Amino acid sequence: MSSTINLLPWREKAHKQKAIHFLYQLLLVLILLIVSYVALLDFKEGIQQKNYQIQTNLSQLQQQLQQGQSSLHSLRQNYISAEKELVSSKTLQQVFQLLIALPLQQGELTSLSLDAKKLLLTGAVEHQQEFEQVHQALNQSNLFSKISLLQFQPEQQQIVFEIELLFEN
Prior knowledge:
The chain crosses the membrane at residues 20-40. Residues 44-78 form a coiled coil. By secondary structure, the protein is an alpha+beta fold. It has two domains: 8-84; 89-167, Gyrase A, domain 2, CATH 3.30.1360.100. The protein has three helices and four strands. It has a four-stranded antiparallel sheet, with helices on one face. The longest helix is centred in the first third of the chain and has 76 residues, at 9-84.
């Protein structure tokens, strides 16, 4: 026996309308899903671009930070080395008092170089006796641990000298 469905024409029409309505709803849901999928892909791409920009900016900032830290380290080292070479005001005052008291009658000091470790005097005198008096005055000073004669050059009218004086530590 075969079974068949005997639908009345109005039922058949209603069933057909429901099927078409279901197909429209299904099509609408599919379109909404596709549009949502495309929108999510676009949103994901935008987020990836923002993430790439943020990563690029972060790496640039890290490079700038590293350069800044390197510069800061270099400046600190320069400051520390410069600080070590600073002469205390007490030492500076004692050096000036010593220079004022040097027994120079006809001679003169032509240059003076001073740092935290040494004093370098360059000058000229007319007689060796005057140089010996200057050298003796420097030897009698308690400021220096070592006195070295770097240059002693007799010329026609004068004697040019250069003396290095190392400070007591």
